[in-house]
Amino acid sequence: MTNDFFDNGYPPPAFYFSVTIGNGIQVPDTSFSEVSGIGTEIETESVVEGGENRFVHQLPLKMKHGNLELKRGIATLQSPLVVWCKAVLEGEFMQLIVPQTIIVNLKSNTMAPGSTTATEVLRTWEFFGAYPIKWDVESFSSTKNDVAIEKITFSYTYSQRTK
Fold first, then answer.
1. CB count, 10 Å around CB of 3?
2. Where are the alpha helices (H) located in the chain, listed in sequence order?
3. Whole-angstrom Cα distance, residue 151 to residue 69?
4. Which residues make Cβ contacts (< 8 Å) with residue 109, sequence separation at least 6?
5. What is the pTM of this model?
6. Residues in the chain where the model's pLDDT stays below 50
7. Across the strands, what pairs with 152?
């Protein structure tokens, strides 16, 4: 048996990834330490069949997804992502919310010769119509030597895995 299955990026590492927001240009401040919330499920409705007491039918209703969460070190006020989050979350609906597409790429842990970053994209998820709905700053502690982290939560219309 050949090892092509494992040579083609399986299982992929979870620590090399990139996030692109908006028009596809990788903004320098989109270096995140963690991405979570990638998932989809089908909501179902329980239906009991008359005269049949052994089981309950689970009928599909609609697609359901959670929220996409991105974590990173707290950025400056000049960050394009911070500007967008402030406009949406602190703008008191005075400005139109402009949804963006967020793309998450899971990359290979191997590097091209002469390169300092992983370049081969193994998996890709796209989140359409995304906009920030929550912006948290994790707690500060004088007893730890950790990076100050912010977590941005996004709602989105739908997602698809393209690779």
1. 7
2. 4-7, 80-89
3. 7
4. 13, 15, 16, 118
5. 0.79
6. 1-2, 5-6, 25
7. 70, 135
Is the bond preceding 113 in cis, omega lying within 30 degrees of 0? no
Q: Which residue is it, tokens 């692109």? A: 20
Domain housing 147: 4-161
User: Which CATH number characterizes residue 114's domain?
Assistant: 2.30.110
Which one, of 157, 155, 153, lies nearest residue 137 by Cα? 153
Residue 130 CB neighbours (<10 A):
20
* Number of structural domains found in the chain: 1
Rounded CA-CA distance 72/147 in Å is 9
pLDDT in tens, 19-60: 888 765 455 566 788 899 999 899 999 999 888 788 899 999
Nearest to 32 by CA among 83, 74, 65, 67: 74
Tokens of 123: 């998996």
